[in-house]
Design goal:
The chain is of the alpha+beta class. It has a 9-stranded antiparallel β-sheet. A 3-stranded mixed β-sheet has the order 1-2-12. Helix 1 packs across helix 2 and helix 3 packs antiparallel against helix 5. The longest helix is centred in the first third of the chain and has 17 residues. The radius of gyration is 19 Å and the shape is globular.
Length: 313
């Protein structure tokens, strides 16, 4: 595991040497610049990152055919590393944190969890214990919906969720969690093959789609390994991407926060400094109220999902 982490760190350093402006941007992303909010006793850090206004994953251009990784679609100083067969790793040119990477499929294909979680597990295995995998569905923050991709970030950034998952560990079943703001499903698996985990997740997402009419595109996923044999998968269930304060144009009044999985995990990305003047704990509470399924719907889901789980062999 350690050797794989070294390889990834070495690639970051190599890209930064070739792209000093990006190195400076990554190096300036420190948590001491964040403003901390408490929302229903949960910690949230808000970062003002002006460079995220025009972000596009990996600098890709929206195209209708071919691979987005062809040189003509990359930024001038951008390169990629063949992480494993069929997938490439890139340093994010619009980072939220230092060592913010993107892993993309080499071929054009839609952003989906169904049938692809085992690939996320393989990628996480490849990058090592120090990094985690984050996924946005096309209705929950993915900016390039026609191309499959995930984010890689240092796991240490999400120690709150690592501790939270540990409290709810149950290797025998899905755990349904509701912390007052976020609602979803937690799966703690130990010594299970990626195929078995994939089967469980596909069964879950298929049931939600066909029986509950829940759109897979509204899922966020946080995946990490606690140790070499234990994997944590946290699936957030949303009802929308935008919230009541979201402006119609960048110049309009409002709060330009477009919540993806990083925001859901408690690190709020705010690309306009003026928005901090109107941002409050109550406004953040409203934002999460607007994007997550409500408690009554969640309880209905959990009742049916538990019933379905009991029927499964």
């Amino acid at each position: 595991m350690q050797n794989r982490t070294v390889i990834l760190s070495a690639y970051f350093k190599d890209q930064w040497q070739k792209w000093p402006e990006l190195a400076a941007l990554h190096g300036s992303l420190t948590s001491d610049k964040a403003i901390k909010f408490e929302v229903n006793n949960h910690p949230f850090w808000v970062y003002t990152l002006a460079h995220r206004k025009n972000s596009a994953i990996g600098g890709y251009r929206k195209i209708s055919a071919g691979s987005p990784l062809e040189p003509k679609h990359l930024l001038p100083k951008q390169s990629y590393y063949p992480l494993l067969e069929g997938f490439h790793f890139m340093v994010n040119p619009y980072p939220i944190f230092d060592e913010h990477g993107i892993v993309c499929s080499a071929q054009l294909r839609p952003q989906k969890v169904y049938g692809h979680l085992h690939e996320m597990l393989s990628i996480q295995e490849k990058v090592g214990l120090n990094y985690c995998v984050l996924y946005n569905g096309i209705g929950s923050g993915a900016s390039i919906p026609e191309h499959w991709h995930i984010h890689l970030l240092p796991k240490s950034l999400f120690s709150y969720w690592e501790a939270y998952a540990d409290l709810n560990s149950d290797s025998s079943a899905f755990h349904f969690f509701d912390d007052g703001l976020r609602r979803g499903i937690h799966l703690h698996v130990k010594d299970h093959s990626s195929e078995k985990i994939q089967e469980s997740i596909d069964s879950l997402t298929h049931f939600m789609s066909k029986v509950l009419n829940f759109e897979e595109s509204l899922i966020n996923v946080f995946l990490f390994k606690r140790d070499t044999s234990t994997t944590e998968i946290i699936i957030f269930l949303r009802k929308a991407h935008r919230h009541r304060y979201f402006p119609e144009a960048v110049e309009d009044a409002g709060i330009l926060i477009s919540p993806g999985v990083v925001d859901v995990l408690g690190h709020i990305v705010c690309s306009r400094e003026d928005d901090l003047k109107t941002l409050t704990s109550l406004a953040l509470e409203h934002i999460f109220e607007d994007i997550f399924i409500d408690r009554a719907t969640f309880q209905h889901y959990t009742t049916l999902l538990k019933r379905q789980s009991a029927k499964s062999p």
